[in-house]
Amino acid sequence: MIELAGTDAERGQDPHDFLVNLRAFLNRRRGDAILLAEANLPPEDQRRFFGDEGGDEIHMLFNFLVNQRLFLALVRRDPAPVVTGLRELPEVPETNQWANFVKNHDELTLDKLSDDEREEVFAALAPDPDMRSFGRGIRRRIPPMLEGDRDRIELLYSLAFTLPGSPVLLYGEEIGLGDNQAVEGRGAVRVAMQWTAGPHGGFTSGEPAVPVVADGPFAPDHVNVAAQRRDPGSLLNWTERAIRTRKELPELGWGAWQVLDTDHPGVLAHRCDWQGRGVLVLHNFHPDRPRSPSTWATTPSRAAPCPTCSPTTTTTGPPPATRWDLARFGYRWLRLPG
Q1: Tens place of pLDDT for every residue, the chain, 338 residues?
Q2: Backbone torsion region of residue 96, taken as left when φ is above 0, otherwise alpha when ψ lies between -120 and 50, otherwise beta
Q3: Domain spans, the chain
Q4: I need a surface site. Which of 123, 202, 227, 287 has the fewest CB within 10 A?
Q5: Alpha helices in the chain (DSSP H)
């Protein structure tokens, strides 16, 4: 944390000079290390933390702007807020990146939304005022927030993996870890990892020094690593496949992106192109299938789906075009022909 009060910055020394020096030191000592910053600021102020046109300060910034609009879009069943957030982001140097996330170890902050938008998200995802913190955040993890709805959970993380930038996961997200609302403040989401069934989830055989999820649908007997490793359909195995597939699609991180028009208000379609190759990604924010799936998204017939991360969709339509039918909160990752 860089605090300006009482430091040389108050006397005219720019703290960004320190970041430049820190980056240079890190580059000399460990070339494969990165600096990741939490700078929850307006877009124009965030850009400064990347440094000059060569990106000589922070490697990555958490993408708070799109994160907050992601939940507004989920509540409204309309991807428009995500599109707005993407278009508000400043361009970053080639070697820098936005860190896309669904949840971090604090509350889900909604401070960049308007008061009305924030209340809209509160009403849907944190109806009990005790679930909120600081008047601007939600102190819940995603699975309880979405009542364990696997389709919506996959939709959120599919977006985190495919939106322009690099995905970042909080521990426990890969298994659908719950929270403990009996714990005050941010501690409610900082619960022990659940490795096995039974008391304390295999986190410790003694008295845990951190909160645990002791009962309910997200307790260790229902949510744990050991059981999910053996279940091909588990969220853990889905996440492993998503990570593996994401590594095979560098276009999503490096490519130039664009949002495509569709004739269905609940569907987000965007593509990323890099070095002559492209990826098209489709997400349905609506609980219903698009009424006319054969007309809203057309792609070349040689587009290759990534089946490990697109289990809920089918295809229709003759060559030379293929039309993709999305299920409730469905998604598709497609490799486009070069």
Answers
A1: 566 666 555 556 678 888 999 999 999 999 899 999 999 999 889 999 999 888 999 999 999 999 999 999 999 999 999 999 999 999 999 889 999 999 999 999 999 999 999 999 999 999 999 999 999 999 999 999 999 999 999 999 999 999 999 999 999 999 999 999 999 999 999 999 999 999 999 999 999 999 999 999 999 999 999 999 999 999 999 999 999 999 999 999 999 999 998 888 999 999 999 999 999 999 999 998 875 443 344 455 456 666 555 544 444 444 445 567 789 999 999 998 76
A2: beta
A3: 8-251, 254-336
A4: 123
A5: 15-29, 43-46, 64-76, 80-88, 115-125, 142-145, 150-162, 225-229, 235-247, 251-254, 293-296
- Write the single-letter amino acid at 191: V
Length of the chain in residues, anyone?
338
List Cα–Cα distances, 110 to 66, 176, 191, in angstroms.
11, 22, 22
Which fold, 8-251?
A: TIM Barrel (3.20.20)
At 134, list the tokens. 């600081």
State the sign of the Cα–Cα–Cα–Cα dihedral 251, 174, 310, 297.
negative
HSE, CB side, 13 Å, CA atoms: give it for residue 251: 23
Sign of the Cα torsion 66, 70, 73, 77 reads positive
Cis peptide before 199 (omega within 30 of 0): no
Which CATH number describes the domain made up of 254-336?
2.60.40.1180
Whole-Å CA distances, 170 to 50, 75, 101, 110, 271:
23, 22, 8, 18, 26
Supply 149's token pair.
């709805």
| H or E, element range at 193 | none
Closest CA to 121 of 100, 146, 104: 146
